Amino acid sequence: MYDYDVVIIGGGVSGCAVARELSRCKVNVCVFEKEEDVCCGTSKANSGIVHAGYDAPEGSVKARMNLRGNELMETLAEELDIPFERNGSLVLCLRREDMPGLRKLYDRGIANGVKELRILDREEVLEMEPNVTDEVFAALYAPSAGIVCPFELNIALAENAYVNGVEFRFRTEVTEIKKLEEGFALTTDAGEFKARYVVNAAGVYADRFHNMVSKDKIHITARRGDYCLLDKSAGKHVRSTIFTLPGEYGKGVLVAPTAHGNLILGPTAIDIEDKEGTNTTREGLDQVLGKVGLSVKNLPVRQVITSFAGLRAHESQDEFIIEEAEDARGFIDCAGIESPGLTSCPAIGEYIAGMLRDRMELEEKEDFIAVRKGILRPQSLDREERAALIRQNPAYGNIICRCEMITEGEIMDAINRPLGARSLDGVKRRTRAGMGRCQSGFCSPRTMEILARERHMDIREVTKSGGNSRIVTGTNKDVL
What share of the chain is helix, strand, coil (3-state, %, to 5)? Predict the structure, then answer.
C-alpha cells in the first residue's frame, strides 16, 4: 500500500514546476521539503535572469530545457500573475581579438534555436545602453532574454499545485531511501512513507539521494555565488542584462535590473564543501565590486542595500541530469540544476510530468485550475479604486513597510492564502516587506505582530526562517 503515487523531494522551482504540471492529472502527489516553506534553497538566491539560450552546448539537455523554458515563461507568468519582462541581454566584447569568441556564442545560439540574435557594433551598443563601458567593441544582443522574480515564480507554482490537489509536507527531511520490489520507502524525520515514484529535485543534495538507490554515482558540488543588490534609485542604470565575454580578465559578473526595479550585481562562482554555506565573504563581494566596472561605468555602488549568496548545484559533467535512474526504475533525477535552471523550470516540469503521465497512464483532470491570482497590490490601483478598497478593508490603508509601501492587508493575504507565510522571510518573499532600503529595520516588529495574530501564536514563536530562528525570547513580562 502506497502513501503517494509520486513524492517530489524539494520545494524549489524545479520541484514545484513538476508538482504544478502533475496537478493537471488525477494522481496523488506530495512535495517533501525539509524547510518551513518553499523557495528556501537554491531558488531563493539567484539573478532572476531568463536566459535566451546561447550558452549551453548544442544538443545538450541544458540547451533544450533553456530554450523551451524561455518560450513557456511568458504564458506561465500570465497564468500565475507574476512579474516578467523581456528586457533583452547584451554580452559585451571589449577587444577586437575576442570577436571569435563572440561569434562562437552567436553560432551556438543560432544552432540552439534562439531567435533574433544579433551582433551589434560599438555605436549600436552605446546607443542602446549609454552606461556600458567606453571600452566596448561589440556585443551579442538577445532580445528574448528576460527578468523574473524567482520568489514569486516558485511560490506561485507551489500555490497553484496545492490548489489543484498536491500535498506539501514542510519540515520533513528525507534521511534514507530504499528501493522496494515496486516503489520506494522514504524515511523522514516525520515518519516513513511509501511511494510508487520519486522525483529527486533536492538541489545541492540531489547526489545524496541518487546515490542511495543507484550504483551509478553522481557528484554535485555546492558553487557559491555572491551578489550585491542596489537600491531602486539605481534600477534604471541599465535596461538590459549586461554580461561580459570571458577574456584576459577572466569571466565577468552580470549587471541587471530586477523585476521589482532594483539593480543586481554578481555572481561569483566559488566551489565550497559546505552545502549550507550561504554566508557572504569579503573575498566574494570584492570580486563582484571589482569586476562590474569592466562592463558598466559610473555604477552607484554606494547604493548597495544588501548582499547575499546562493548555492548552485554544479554536477561534475556540467549538465542537467533529468532522467530515470537505470538501476532504480521509478526514481527520476532532476539533478545538477544550476544556471539556466530558473529559466528551464517550466520545461523541466513539463518534461518530467510527461514522463510520469506516460509511464502511469494518467488521466487529465477536467477541472484543472490554470490561473492563480497574486496578492492584491494597492499601489497597482488608480486613486479611486484604492480608496474603494480601503473603505472595504481598512488594512489596505495601513502601511507597514515604508520602503516598499506594503500594507497590512497585503501581509495578511500573504499569511492566509494557500501555503501562506509562516515566518518573516516567508512574508518578505511574498510581499517584499523588508526588502527595501532599510532591510526590515522599521517594519519587522509590526510584521511579527501580524504574523502572531493571524497564525494565533505567541510572538515568541515567530521566526525569521523557521526552525530555531526565533527573534523574541524571554518571559511574557519581558515581551510586554
Answer: 35, 25, 40
